[in-house]
Design goal:
This protein is of the alpha/beta class. The protein contains ten helices and twelve strands. It has helices at residues 41-48, 71-75, 93-98, 113-125, 141-154, 171-183, 195-201, 219-222, 225-232, 263-272, and strands at residues 3-12, 15-25, 30-34, 56-61, 64-65, 78-81, 159-163, 187-191, 204-209, 212-217, 234-240, 246-253. The chain has a six-stranded mixed β-sheet, with helices on both faces. A hairpin with a 5-residue loop joins β11 and β12 (246-253).
């Protein structure tokens, strides 16, 4: 499923968070969304998923504007995986993964045999079969994240949007997840902090800065030393790793243009209050 946005703008508290973004993620593409903290990545993803209503612009899924589609119809097409999600309920791992089948079920009947088979396959793909009966509260952060990923797979969507899904995952599960996303036939848009992983697994990168899309293209074109200096304020080298894949090596942060506050003065002022 192709996902597009035209002139997408979203504001909160009088502040523009997403600023006139135009983008297109083609059917079957795996696209990385990168940018520093506060650049608007999470807000943009939530607008594209229909979870926030933009102040201006339009989002289309498969050429159809999502305005007015309704949450159920959107959920039948697209899965959204947040950075983290908490619950105080007594759900088990299989129950949480099974939430992905709700958009396809009759509201008066529970899951059928096909639903249970789909959930079981999703749990197996994420290495969670042995934990299927484990209560949610007993899971580690990484296990919870993998459970939410299983829920997204059980949804069997045409597209998956993921907001920093590698958070809480160890190295093995980070690589497992990104290889899964890169190999799937589904459309994928994934926000990532690790630029080397983004370069390795994504067909294309979108670089967001202060809510604006400032670069869109293959990793080798988007990840340049000058651009990383401008956007991330780091001195970086871009080149092949020992296996010949594009990687980012950091020499260190660039000097701050504005001096840090004088901590001695601040302490003295605090003593007088």
């Amino acid at each position: 499923m192709r996902i597009t946005a035209e002139g997408l703008t979203w504001r909160a508290g009088g502040v523009t968070i997403v600023d006139g973004v135009d983008l297109a993620v083609g059917e079957g593409e795996t696209v990385g969304l990168i940018g520093p903290n506060g650049s608007g990545k999470s807000s943009l993803l939530r607008c594209l998923a229909g979870l926030r209503t933009p102040g201006a612009g339009q989002v289309c899924h498969g050429g159809q504007a999502i305005h007015g589609l309704g949450a159920r119809r959107i959920a039948q097409r697209l899965a959204f995986v947040e950075q983290s999600a908490e619950t105080d309920s007594e759900l088990r791992v299989a129950d949480v993964a099974g939430l992905g089948r709700i958009p396809f079920q009759d509201r008066w009947r529970g899951p059928g045999a096909q639903d249970r088979a789909i959930v079981a396959a999703a749990l197996d793909r994420l290495g969670l079969t042995a934990l299927a009966a484990r209560p949610w509260k007993e899971l580690s952060g990484g296990e919870r994240q993998r459970t939410h990923l299983a829920r997204a797979l059980a949804q069997q969507p045409d597209a998956i949007l993921l907001d920093e899904p590698t958070n809480h995952l160890d190295v093995k599960h980070q690589l497992d997840l990104l290889e899964l996303l890169a190999a799937t036939a589904q459309t994928v848009l994934v926000a990532l902090h690790d630029l080397s992983l983004a370069a390795r697994y994504c067909d294309r990168l979108l670089l967001l800065h202060h809510g604006r899309l400032i670069a869109d293209g293959p990793p080798k074109d988007v990840l340049t030393p000058a651009r990383l200096a401008e956007v991330f304020e780091v001195d970086a080298e871009i080149g092949p790793d020992p296996l010949g894949r594009l990687a980012v090596t950091y020499r260190g942060p660039l000097p701050r243009l504005d001096p840090l506050p004088n901590t001695t003065t601040m302490t003295a002022r605090g003593d007088r209050t």
